[in-house]
Amino acid sequence: MSLSQNIARGLLEIEAVSLSPKTPFTWASGIQSPIYTDNRITLAYPEIRTVIEDGFVDLIKAEYPEAEVIAGTATAGIPHGAIIADKMDLPFAYIRSKPKDHGNKRQIEGRVTKGQKMVVIEDLISTGGSVLSAVAAAQNEGAEVLGVLAIFTYELEKATHNFEAAGVSLSTLTSYTDLIEVAHETNQISKEELELLQKFKQNQENWQD
């Protein structure tokens, strides 16, 4: 079993990801989706949490060995980023969705120096808009963002286009495709439900927000 399949299985087992192809969930954006993801739940399960963090560390060492600082997006990327930074003995920072409206009015908490090579950690990629805003904030502070890493991606074309347009690299530990296939292999969904989930992904208009 690959790392992606192993993590997908773990996310399903702890119900960090729920599938309901016949009775879709309603996201905050109003999108009707057959999948709901809350990767914050992984923090409560040391076994899968360790697999995820070790996966991130291995990915950074392989793809961004020159990384000098790890940054987590607020709020979901903060705990994962902090654990990764600790494992790698690297500085940690986190990036707010917008600057504070008081005090020093910082958007980035921690200490990031100009030209410092940064990897940004996110938990979930849908269209990529929020994490790319965080990347832009880091770049405005002078950081050299090497790339974005996330636990899971819905594999949306819009996200691919957004990352390409921003010139930012994206890598994830697991994906929608692997997750629904693992769900079928472990008898959590039927063949008919697998096909419904595949069709939903193919119809990218369902996901646009």
Overall description:
This protein has seven helices and ten strands. The protein is globular. With 209 residues, it is α/β, with parallel strands linked by helices. The strands form three sheets. Strands 7-6-5-8-9-10 form a six-stranded mixed beta sheet, with helices on both faces.
Write the layout of secondary structure elements.
Layout lengths: L2 H11 L3 E3 L5 E2 L5 E2 L1 E3 L8 H18 L5 E5 L3 H12 L3 E4 L12 E2 L7 E9 L3 H12 L3 E10 L3 H10 L3 E6 H10 L5 H12 L7
Parallel strand pairs: 5-6, 5-8, 8-9, 9-10
Antiparallel strand pairs: 1-4, 2-3, 6-7
Helix pairs in contact: 1-2, 1-6, 2-3, 6-7
Quick structural overview:
Helices cover 41% and strands 22% of the residues. With 209 residues, the protein is α/β, with parallel strands linked by helices.
